[in-house]
Amino acid sequence: MDRKQMVVERTRAIFGERLDDVLHIVRQDRQGLRGWEEPAHLRAVLRRRTLRVSDVNFNESTEVAVADTTIGRGAAEPDPGQQRESIGILLEAGATALEKVAQQNAPDLTPQERMGLECVLLLHGRPAVEVTPTGLANVPPLWNVLEDQREDIEMVQRGVGRIELFGHPEYDWAGTAFLVNETTLMTTRQTAEFFVENRNEQWQFRPGITAWMDYSSAYQDVASAGYRVRAVMGVHPTYDLALLEVEPPQGQTPGSPTPLAVAAQPPEQMEGRQVYLVGYPVRDARRNDPETLSRIFRDVYNVKRIQPGVLRGTLNFREIQLLRHDCAPLGQSSGSCLVDLETQQVIGLHLTSRYLEPGTAIPLWVLRDDPLLRRCGVTFAQATTEELRLTAEQMERLARTRYWNEVKGSIASYYQRAFGTNSRSEPRYEQ
């Protein structure tokens, strides 16, 4: 399949019958880019991170600057206004391509129209939405469901972080991991192998390397010590999965890391079910995207992002079962958690993906009775949606009594362990 055909097929698969809606949104965004600042939902995908520096006493960090948009201005690069206009021109080409895709079975796209269509896919179809220090950034109009579940998503992302490395000769960090109980991290074996090795049938840290977990969303030029990774609890003999012991979250302060609940059962609908990845995408060296798009989207990488998409069924490779999804078209997000948007439970450990192609993940429910996960105390959530609703109603009634302040801490812990984190179902008020 040539590239033009692939992009057209991806467009039809992702947008379906909403091509006219997408065309309207793209034209509006193109008009918005004629102003001084791009639309907020585009900025959430394209903007550079806030730069943070420590003061002279190294006591606290201070926000000092935000690069205007999209790409850093190096030698011979255009000013921000010209950058916005270049994106606008791509959206114009993308709008023309959308018209052709809607009207023709085999549209004849020019190279610029094909590139514009790729840009539309990455901005609106499968965006990588920024997670800021204050929460989830603006979401694209086609993904308003993320806005509806903002509180849940922001709760989930707190338990996802990046493994920072100290003492490694080449890398400052290894990849994404997430909490599956108070002291256990889950990630891929390939991520763990950056800093651990198998010596005499035992997995141990490589000499001179220490690892720390950083749950923050902001990009830091210098890794900060957060929660130390203490030991390797185990590496799965069949699946690309590793479990690590990490220091527990300190207290229950707002924004503190929260363990995620792993789904004990497969989703009711396997094809087309809405899901999202939480992780730190990195650029895939195997990709073959146009240089213009590479420059526009390069600031997506190395910071925490929410990447929505849908499930694309399952596949079997010998004795291994894998999930297919289309959440990560920009590149690698190995070690990210794949979360069911309806239940807010982790259904998969993301393994690999390629530019504009479906990704794969380990379906974690198949490991519910796995000896390694049982030994490490991985929490599996077994409640149904109806059970969640009934529990929420009972909690609401209890919240109106004089006993609420005494029991709310125990209820929160029990709720998280039994049902998984789902802040929609928690009481919204104090007594």
In short:
This protein is an alpha+beta fold and 431 residues long. The chain has 12 helices and 22 strands.
Jot down its keywords:
431 residues; alpha+beta; Thrombin, subunit H; 4 domains; six-stranded antiparallel barrel; 12 helices; globular; disordered C terminus
Architecture overview:
The strands form six sheets. Strands 14-16-17-21-20-19 form a six-stranded antiparallel beta barrel. It has a six-stranded antiparallel barrel with strand order 5-6-7-12-11-10. Helices cover 31% and strands 27% of the residues. It has helices at residues 3-15, 19-32, 40-46, 80-103, 111-125, 144-148, 150-157, 189-192, 291-296, 371-375, 385-399, 404-419; strands spanning 50-54, 61-66, 129-132, 135-136, 160-166, 173-181, 184-187, 196-199, 202-205, 210-214, 227-235, 242-246, 262-263, 271-279, 282-283, 305-317, 320-325, 331-332, 337-340, 346-352, 359-363, 380-381. By secondary structure, it is an alpha+beta fold. Mean pLDDT is 82; it is low at 49-76, 220-224 and 421-431. It folds into four domains: 3-125, no CATH class; 161-246, Thrombin, subunit H (Beta Barrel), CATH 2.40.10; 262-380, Thrombin, subunit H (Beta Barrel); 385-425.
